[in-house]
């Protein structure tokens, strides 16, 4: 690739992110083109790539920073971790297991952005701020179960993971809990529940530990986490009256 053209592409991608980051409302493609002094046709593909990778999201006819920008580029201790840190800490204390805050990034990825440690020496220690496939993670199952456009994601998924998810989807939607029982790591079990803001699923909280210890307690952990999130105002219908 011509170095000059390559640098222009990098400059435009960075420019798109900077314009959107400064804006107080979604930025239409026409505004991006005007502010970057670039043809809409040349920006369209770049915007599409940023949408696909989760660095932009499309809303109300314009673009805002997506989950990828917050989960992968923001400093630790910002955004969702600040908002949900106390909820995660309470769940970790009451379950004794590792509690992790997860967000969906792009079409196919889940990123863990915060973790509260287990009280046990033998426990799950997640890697933060790394993309991982949306299936078969418990948080990924939760996001997919509430995604009306999941077919394109499932079409690219591992066949066994896709088949198993399709047998679980009705239960996930009914209970608000998604499980991973040894599908990623043979002796690891996890349950994920949803974090809602204005009745919109924005993140997932997972409780995970060795299957030998948590296998019979995952549903209890999920219910406990839902109770904490409801009390803190992050359930599907907000804070319950006291």
UniProtKB/TrEMBL annotation:
<dbReference type="InterPro" id="IPR005471">
    <property type="entry name" value="Tscrpt_reg_IclR_N"/>
</dbReference>
<keyword id="KW-0804">Transcription</keyword>
<dbReference type="GO" id="GO:0003677">
    <property type="term" value="F:DNA binding"/>
</dbReference>
<dbReference type="InterPro" id="IPR014757">
    <property type="entry name" value="Tscrpt_reg_IclR_C"/>
</dbReference>
<keyword id="KW-0238">DNA-binding</keyword>
<dbReference type="InterPro" id="IPR036390">
    <property type="entry name" value="WH_DNA-bd_sf"/>
</dbReference>
<dbReference type="Pfam" id="PF01614">
    <property type="entry name" value="IclR_C"/>
</dbReference>
<dbReference type="InterPro" id="IPR029016">
    <property type="entry name" value="GAF-like_dom_sf"/>
</dbReference>
<dbReference type="GO" id="GO:0003700">
    <property type="term" value="F:DNA-binding transcription factor activity"/>
</dbReference>
<dbReference type="Pfam" id="PF09339">
    <property type="entry name" value="HTH_IclR"/>
</dbReference>
<keyword id="KW-0805">Transcription regulation</keyword>
<dbReference type="InterPro" id="IPR050707">
    <property type="entry name" value="HTH_MetabolicPath_Reg"/>
</dbReference>
<feature type="domain" description="IclR-ED">
    <location>
        <begin position="61"/>
        <end position="242"/>
    </location>
</feature>
<protein>
    <submittedName>
        <fullName>Transcriptional regulator, IclR family</fullName>
    </submittedName>
</protein>
<dbReference type="InterPro" id="IPR036388">
    <property type="entry name" value="WH-like_DNA-bd_sf"/>
</dbReference>
<dbReference type="GO" id="GO:0045892">
    <property type="term" value="P:negative regulation of DNA-templated transcription"/>
</dbReference>
<feature type="domain" description="HTH iclR-type">
    <location>
        <begin position="7"/>
        <end position="67"/>
    </location>
</feature>
């Amino acid at each position: 690739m011509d170095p000059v053209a390559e640098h222009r592409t990098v400059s435009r991608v960075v420019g798109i992110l900077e314009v959107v980051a400064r804006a107080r409302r979604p930025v239409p493609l026409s505004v991006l083109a005007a502010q970057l002094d670039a043809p809409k046709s040349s920006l369209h593909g770049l915007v599409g790539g940023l949408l696909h990778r989760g660095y932009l999201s499309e809303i109300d006819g314009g673009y805002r920073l997506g989950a990828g920008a917050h989960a992968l580029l923001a400093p630790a201790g910002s955004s969702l971790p600040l908002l949900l840190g106390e909820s995660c800490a309470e769940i970790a204390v009451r379950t004794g297991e590792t509690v992790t805050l997860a967000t969906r990034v792009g079409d196919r990825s889940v990123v863990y952005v915060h973790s509260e440690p287990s009280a046990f020496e033998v426990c799950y220690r997640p890697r933060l701020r790394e993309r991982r496939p949306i299936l078969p993670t418990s948080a990924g199952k939760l996001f997919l179960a509430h995604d009306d456009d999941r077919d394109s994601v499932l079409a690219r998924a591992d066949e066994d993971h896709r088949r198993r998810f399709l047998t679980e989807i009705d239960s996930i939607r009914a209970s608000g809990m998604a499980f991973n029982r040894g599908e990623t790591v043979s002796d690891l079990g996890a349950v994920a529940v949803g974090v809602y803001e204005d009745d919109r699923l924005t993140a997932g909280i997972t409780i995970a530990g060795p299957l030998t210890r948590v296998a019979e307690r995952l549903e209890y952990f999920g219910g406990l986490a839902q109770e904490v999130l409801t009390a803190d105002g992050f359930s599907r219908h907000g804070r319950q009256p006291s």
